[in-house]
Request: fold
Amino acid sequence: WTCAAGTLDIGITGDNYLWMTTFQEHAEQAAAFFMQREPYASNAHRIRFFIVPTQRDLYCTRSSTINRLITCNGTVARAVFTEAGYTPDWVFILVDKMEYGGSGGVTCVSYAGSLRNKVGAHECLGHAAGQRDEYQLYSTAGPNVDAWTGQIWKGVTAPPLPGKWVKGCYRPNYWCERVQKPDGTYVKSLMAALGYPEFSHRSRQL
Reply:
């Protein structure tokens, strides 16, 4: 990721929280969880969090076709920070709903249930930094070219990099890297599944 003045500013706000104390607790927990992930942990001195509670409607809605997809109005959300005197690079919105969901990008969203921190890390730390999903999002193959799209390799063969590379990531013919645990086994990364809360080595270089 690239940031103005060498820092990454992440703003956290909430939508439809009945209790601001609950939002504050959730926001602080999310910030702490984010800073345990690499490469963010090693760059803690370059990362700032701005937690701004609001009771403004951020127009967060759930998709009628993809039930887990929750999107909010990024322009309205950023105005919350502008009025507070902040201009974050990324905005993370916690929606006070218990049904699983979220969405990614520089305006990233998570529901407020038990997996909110992992969802937030996937959607915000991953997608806002340009990473792609590592599960098979599309059933059709994409063009085979020796090039990257985020941390996904689109070549005919695995990339000429160390590590364990597997097919079936994002598209059935694309490659992604598995994460090696201390015991030597390999597991999916946070961009493939929430069960293992680490990014792949390639992801950490973006």
